[in-house]
Input
Amino acid sequence: MFKIVAAEFLAADIKRFVIEAPKIAHKRKPGQFVIVRISEHGERIPLTIADANEKEGTITIIVQGIGKTTKEINSHNSGDYFMDVVGPLGLPSHIENFGTAVSIGGGVGTAIAFPTAKALKLAGNHTISIVGAKTKDLVILEKEMNEICDEVFITTDDGSYGFHGFVTQKLQELLKSGTKIDFVLAIGPIPMMRAVAEVTRPFGIKTVVSLNPVMVDGTGMCGGCRAVVGGETVFVCVDGPEFDAHKVDFELLMKRNNTYRSAEKEALDAHICRLQNLQTGEGVKSASEKAMV
Output
């Protein structure tokens, strides 16, 4: 069992957890992830290690409640426990002094980009961060990014905060202004990562993305996280999760991620239905009636 030391919402449905996991905190490196399971029969959820405190023996993960299990995770609070936290898994980010390094986070992707951006700064890079969100209320880790980056730009789709537009438009603006960029890390929704790759491709800028396929065991045994990079099949959990953006088959990745979309929706709808029944008392009534039969 892994105790939750602290838990707080950063934005609607986006929650930060600090968890006691001393062995993971000691071994983790930027770019690696853990697989979390909240109960014996629970779904395994891969989550990037957003930060770690080796002295305190804790790791930080940030969870966006989208499906049934992630919403259940976000119902946990300080003092609660997760049954399993397995890791660190995956290969760490490749860190070197590239020169000027841009880290782009779309939505909760900012949490995944954060530890690598921090490591890039420590390696001597001039670091630029582009943090994107749909609206101002969904912007996360702005303060933390400002603490580790030389320049930070916020973009919102609706223009409610920062630059009105997408992260790719801000990236294009920087390139057009003559900013010399040597390395780009982009993490977020698949369409966003693909769009960033197309922006940097003509400039020959080394661009890395962190993939988010369907994943089960995190050890390469199940084969669920297959992706195609450079025409070859890879297992994201052991060969990644970071890959050359200009070689990723994003179309296939998107199709594979959509495979279980209907099943995920059914599970979430059933979960919401049970919660509503419990709130109205119908769940208790139904249980009593069954006991009387």
Remarks:
- Residues 213-259 form one domain.
